[in-house]
Recover the amino acids of this structure.
């Protein structure tokens, strides 16, 4: 299968609107524009949105069918084999259950959060098994080549022994911070525990995750010069810095000849991360997996991320 015929459900910010007025074709922030970058592999046949104003944006595109409800789309005879769900958390599970009834749709790309509560989100695991669905959640950064290479370096202990890690995130923990919870789980696995540091802002707390030999500290800050987040990793030999839409930098530590207990940093390596490429990396990886007929969905890890966030917010 070389061509996936898609239906885009939800024409809100992440579905279509974030970059609709940006003329620079290299800035890709939405699912719609990301799919346009992979026209050889994905063709958008239909869009669904309850807001008729959003649908009117596609009036000039006669090749795209428009529906104002999921039920109308499902009643229509169609050949879509890929669904992209960009609706709110209160409708995500319900829509996926309806899509599962369409035998030709076995691949679903969706937004986070997966649902308004953990119980209904976990229903998606049984749903995917029952209907042989592959569900991909748009946690983009784990598909970023610089993050993938960092994971490999860490797993092979090429960067020394980790001493501490700091993450900073903008927006709320559920909407923005979740991307970096997912990065932490991708790089280091599930933590042994967690501890609240400051919950002045109940939706964006500061907290720490505990691992065997180190801790990861998460701090919320909306007044910083990064898109959604950044992190720093300190080891006994290196210092690693990642920031959204910037290269991943690695610095090697050297002993300071004057202040023996301090270290000097010397640039060691830059691992490129192209600006505004995270969602493109995501689609490129998903398409590659599907074409190889070996799709590895990240549904389970996304639910683990959601569960950890729920526990932290309830603490």
């Amino acid at each position: 299968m070389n061509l996936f015929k898609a239906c885009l459900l939800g024409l809100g910010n992440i579905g279509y609107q974030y970059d609709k007025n940006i003329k620079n074709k290299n800035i890709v922030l939405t699912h719609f524009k990301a799919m346009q970058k992979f026209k050889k592999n994905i063709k958008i046949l239909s869009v669904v949105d309850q807001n008729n104003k959003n649908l009117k944006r596609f009036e000039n595109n006669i090749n795209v069918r428009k529906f104002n409800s999921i039920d109308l789309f499902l009643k229509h005879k169609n050949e879509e084999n890929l669904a992209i769900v960009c609706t709110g958390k209160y409708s995500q599970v319900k829509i996926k259950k309806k899509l599962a009834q369409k035998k030709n749709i076995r691949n679903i790309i969706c937004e986070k959060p997966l649902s308004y509560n953990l119980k209904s989100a976990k229903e998606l695991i049984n749903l995917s098994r029952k209907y042989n669905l592959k569900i991909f959640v748009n946690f983009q950064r784990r598909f970023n080549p610089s993050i993938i290479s960092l994971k490999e370096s860490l797993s092979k202990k090429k960067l020394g022994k980790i001493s501490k890690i700091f993450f900073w995130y903008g927006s709320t923990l559920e909407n923005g911070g979740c991307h970096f919870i997912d990065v932490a789980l991708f790089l280091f696995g599930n933590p042994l525990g967690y501890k609240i540091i400051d919950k002045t802002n109940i939706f964006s707390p500061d907290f720490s995750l505990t691992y065997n030999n180190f801790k990861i500290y998460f701090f919320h800050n909306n007044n910083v010069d990064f898109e959604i987040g950044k992190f720093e990793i300190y080891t006994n030999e290196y210092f690693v810095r990642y920031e959204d839409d910037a290269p991943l930098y690695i610095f090697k530590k050297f002993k300071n000849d004057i202040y023996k207990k301090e270290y000097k940093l010397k640039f060691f390596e830059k691992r490129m991360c192209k600006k505004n490429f995270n969602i493109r990396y995501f689609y490129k990886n998903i398409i590659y997996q599907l074409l190889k007929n070996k799709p590895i969905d990240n549904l389970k890890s996304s639910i683990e991320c959601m569960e950890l966030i729920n526990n932290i917010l309830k603490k």
The first helix runs from residue 13 to 17. The two ends are 47 Å apart (CA to CA). Residues 169 and 177 are 5 Å apart (CA to CA).
